[in-house]
User: What shape does this take?
Amino acid sequence: MGKSTKTQTIPVKTRILSENDRLAAENRAWFVKQGIFVVNLISSPGSGKTTLLVDTLNALKGKQHCAVIEGDQQTSLDANRIAETGFPVRQVNTGRACHLDASMIKNAVSELAVTGLDILFIENVGNLICPAEFDLGEHCKVVLMSVTEGEDKPLKYPVIFHLSRAVVMTKMDLIPHLRYDPLLAEKNIRKINPQAVILRTSTYTSDGLQDWLDWLVTQKSHLPL
Assistant: This one.
């Protein structure tokens, strides 16, 4: 008879996250040393991340020196839109991976012009699940939630809503055409994260954009960079 074999369970996920957290801590320490405020934007596909980011960058011209790391599984379509603002952008294609990780950010930063940078925006892959678990070294996560997605998103995907410092409700101009209750959506957000700042925005009308900009600048000024 051959030798008996034993089955050993290797906590692969734990080890992957542990290594990622180590690199994220290195990223964060470097960002602090450089005085760069880093925002990780997360949402499901089609929520309006890129459109909000383009409007944000255009509004910050001459006020803040910004750069963007753009995460997508394929194509550079969103990075091309960002580049039109005139700010530096680095595309990261993840292939089959459903999220960015700390090593990808470290590599992307090394290829960006970061001298004198004030704010680095990371537009994560369109996904509410995988990106929530991976620390990139950012100072804060921001989750976007469009009114076309329904009021129950925070209850279905609680991890990212719990971890985010702010929730940006997008496409508010569509409210008259939808059966959507913003107060119910906010109630659901509060169930998961009572401390989250909730911002209502519309890139179509620019409503709420200034509130979002003010929040960003305030967050940057309060960080011990």
